[in-house]
């Protein structure tokens, strides 16, 4: 069933990093598909050509098709993001014609997807989405397109538009986080409580609409025929900065021999906020595990005691020597574990010509965003809300 919970946006953006934390609702079971069909290659590198260079970006290829047809297009350079929900593709990277979603008045539906310091704007369209041997049929996706309509003032006030390859740093974002829709019940109501993600547009005029959960941009994994209860990101340990790192995005949790939970500890998340609790130096903060952010983003110098870098890298930390740290993650279920990590001088790291993989990169944020460096050397599971898994129902992270 679809609940009416509202999820707060919480994200960090640096070097074209976006993370969307909203969504809710949905229920389904999970079954396995044929062996080997659930694993997709991923790579950490500088991203698609022409993006200006990306650091700690986890990329893969997603195939987009006109629904029910063999008219398909593989799109490479799509950022894999466990902190957001749904597929978003740049119009400049898309050649397949997709059907435009309409509202009850026949107006074209657009979305303003807000992030902490940015937005993506463009029409909601319908596509078949294929990854590895899995497929989600006729689901809503966002096409990021500055030419769709004039960005409404209520949307532009939420952040800077990321509307092209240089701005986004990727050809799209594959949101495979813990929720099924990107807004849920909050966007399905009329009135002032609606957060204003979805718009009905006629010509250049757009107004906020109530968008039912089923018509919102959807997490594709939740609509696979099998292996639809979550994902596993499996990346190798990276002992020092390097040029690239390759791994796997594996669909399903406990559905096949390659996605068993094993000894991973399950940390459930708050079903309303999508966060767990991170304690650091005796204080508690909201935390989330997010492959779409390119660093450990946490607090500020007054709380960490670590100096930030001079401009233009002032969003990152620049300790005079490597800073060993630890923090404890605590799930909504009370389970917890301590994570040890090290932060190095970002300016010095970036001076390593040709390197795009930085396991010790950190930056500032009010809460704890366990970005891509957290994933190196771990098997990190993201379980989708309400779905049954061997570790209990989602939503949760496990590692």
Tags for this entry?
single chain; Cathepsin D, subunit A, domain 1; seven-stranded mixed beta sheet; six-stranded mixed β-barrel; disordered N terminus
Count of distinct structural domains: 2
Strand residue content: 35-45%
Tell me the name of the CATH class of the largest domain.
Answer: Mainly Beta
* CA distance, first residue to last residue: 28 Å
| Largest sheet data | 7 strands, mixed
Q: In terms of structural class, how would the helical and strand content be classed?
A: mainly beta
Instruction: Identify the quaternary structure here.
Output: single chain
Mean pLDDT: 91
The general outline is globular
Q: Write the element-wise H/E pattern from the N-terminal end onward.
A: EEEEEEEEHEHEEEEEEEEEHEEHEEEE
User: How many distinct helices?
Assistant: 4
Can you give the helix content as a percent range?
under 10%
Low-confidence stretches: 1-29
Can you describe what's shown?
The protein is mainly β. The chain has 2 domains: 39-223, Cathepsin D, subunit A, domain 1 (Beta Barrel), CATH 2.40.70; 257-398, Beta Barrel (Cathepsin D, subunit A, domain 1), CATH 2.40.70. 4% of the residues lie in helices and 36% in strands. It contains 4 helices and 24 strands. The chain has helices at 153-156, 165-168, 301-304, 346-350, and strands spanning 39-45, 57-65, 72-81, 85-90, 99-100, 108-114, 118-131, 134-144, 160-161, 172-176, 198-202, 205-208, 230-234, 245-251, 266-268, 276-280, 283-289, 296-299, 323-330, 336-343, 362-363, 365-370, 379-383, 396-398. The strands form 2 sheets. Strands 20-19-16-17-22-18-21 form a 7-stranded mixed β-sheet. Strand 7 (118-131) and strand 8 (134-144) form a beta hairpin. The model is unreliable at 1-29 (pLDDT under 50).
